[in-house]
């Protein structure tokens, strides 16, 4: 009997907590289906009188959302692919090939994680300006695809794979590249998935990079497009929430598909990208 | 390597393959590292080192760089924007660090149980962290709407006659940003705390229960001390994150109203990229980095002393 009561209490507490955490999302979703003048009502109306699904149709005409989504997708996929490939490749060198200077070099990688990006964004900007790469997607790709984070996360995982496995493969005549491709890559699928998901989401959500570098409307990402929409039409509350909902949906999908890998990635590295 | 080279000639037959092997390892090792390292060197390490050098130069977009020693730092002392930004950053950190830590620990303890449905609740708590920042900022700005926003409606309903004007007021804009950032970040640190909680042996709690310790005593006597390494790590991460806060503020308040939410990283952005004062902005960036470094080192020291005692 007391066990049952305790259980009910536990669920009640958890539900209250989840409701508190999720209230902003509920507000977003509910407002996205309202008329502009229904968003701020006293008292709060959680379920709209009439569900205006048309908001989700109209927004595509109000702002070039398709272009924005396309740009976000292009940047996120390109950066993720480059980060996963170059990161896991380098991690193999740092964990399974012995050569002088290796560990000192890795220490340099680790040390840079402690330096906030904000401290060197200006020199990066000057470099890109001199190279005439501002206002291009290439600038964002170059700046974000070769981070230390991917190397760090993959190395953590490769260190847990026994060296004997590589040694055996070497004796069997596999080259180092063969070992990387045929043994390490298949074995490290969970870590690769973690890295890919974290990188994808970080790039998709990134605001400052595109904000600093991209001035042409054609190049904007969803985040920039949505922000500028809010700046221009600050009374179209419902439409803002429709845009916000659409910008979150892809992330929700990616997250629900691979949340196991997210959590593992964070728990093993304790860092974000 | 040195051994191989100094070895006399007769022993060469064995030495040569070893030398060749060593060279081969260097080449192979570097071939793995190079694709990432080239990009990393060019776009992270070089800008980082440049930032240090720039801090001692007078250089803006329309003049040539000139060595000025510590002038940029002297200028900071008299720059009111810098004082305001420093104060705001400290205020943000003082709110964000303890509140996020407490919320994350609370969530982790509540969700560290074997009940059906707990994975759903964990997902819910984590989701704000990966929601895009612009969506977070626009939704919370509306929640904080001073006249008809849900937050003030709730406050009025429970008897607060004149609720704060939040992002529209100089005094309450920063607390609004802090609340938003705590909501956004707590799920991330909850994951770290959950990992920490799972390492505490169940026997500790059983033994304490046998000894008659209540839940409160078990929390302070077992949970808190056992989580010390996690708490330390979380505190360091939160400190770094707090002092470099930028994007949330740019999107949510853009430093306003007035400059009531202007923070250091934003000043670096404004001076360096908007105004083109490369030298001065890099000096501010260096100060920002030194603050983060100092706080982190102090935290390490405290942690060492506690672990030793």
Automatic annotation (TrEMBL), chain A:
Sequence ranges assigned to domain ABC transmembrane type-1 in this UniProt record: 69-258
Annotated GO CC locations: plasma membrane
Family annotation (Pfam families): BPD_transp_1 (PF00528)
Domain of life (superkingdom): Bacteria
Segments crossing the lipid bilayer: 9-29, 73-94, 106-126, 138-158, 237-257
Membrane topology: Multi-pass membrane protein
Keyword Cell inner membrane: no
InterPro entries the UniProt entry points to: MetI-like, MetI-like_sf
Keywords: Cell membrane, Membrane, Transmembrane, Transmembrane helix, Transport
Coiled-coil segments: none
Compartment annotation: Cell membrane
Entry keyword Transit peptide: no
GO biological process assignments: transmembrane transport
Main location as per UniProt: membrane
Assigned protein family: Belongs to the binding-protein-dependent transport system permease family.
Protein name per Swiss-Prot or TrEMBL: Carbohydrate ABC transporter permease
Species name: Nonomuraea rhodomycinica
Automatic annotation (TrEMBL), chain B:
Record domain ABC transmembrane type-1: where: 86-299
Keywords: Cell membrane, Membrane, Transmembrane, Transmembrane helix, Transport
Pfam families according to UniProt: BPD_transp_1
GO biological process: transmembrane transport
Annotated TM spans: 26-57, 90-111, 123-143, 172-195, 278-300
Recorded topology in the membrane: Multi-pass membrane protein
InterPro entries in UniProt: ABC_transporter_permease, MetI-like, MetI-like_sf
Any one annotated GO CC term: plasma membrane
Chief site of localization: membrane
Compartment(s) where it occurs, according to its Swiss-Prot or TrEMBL record: Cell membrane
Family in the record: Belongs to the binding-protein-dependent transport system permease family.
Name of the molecule in the record: Sugar ABC transporter permease
Native species: Nonomuraea rhodomycinica
